[in-house]
What we know:
The protein is α+β, with helices and mostly antiparallel strands. It has 2 domains: about 10-65, Signal recognition particle alu RNA binding heterodimer, srp9/1 (2-Layer Sandwich), CATH 3.30.720; about 70-115, 2,3-Dihydroxybiphenyl 1,2-Dioxygenase, domain 1, CATH 3.10.180.10. It is about 20% helix and about 40% strand. It has helices at about 20-30, 75-80, and strands at about 10-15, 30-35, 40-45, 50-55, 65-70, 85-95, 95-105, 110-115. The protein is globular. About 15% of the residues are buried. The mean pLDDT is about 90.
Amino acid sequence: MEQTDRRINYIEFAVSDIARAKAFYGAAFGWRFTDYGPTYCEFDDGHMKGGFDASVPVRPAGGPLVVLYGDDLAELAKAVKDAGGRITQPVFDFPGGRRFHFSDPDGYELAVWSAA
């Protein structure tokens, strides 16, 4: 197993205004940013990366989407189901790799991605 396997790897925040989010987090915490089009921006806090996504509705009650890394998405999707979770979005491609979303037994939504 790689050191990143099964660890929190990325966090996404749904935002209504990327420029405002960048201004706030840049000023308050010194985060750096990489834009990927008009509705997505990656942030880097110097330790962990995440993203601001303006293409989805803001989910203030749901908070950010926690994204874990997994070497084998099929194996991990099975493990999620076997442990009592529910796949909410089957594996799909996105710029940078593939991922799936799931709900844990309490209803929290998370995602798992892989570069392969």
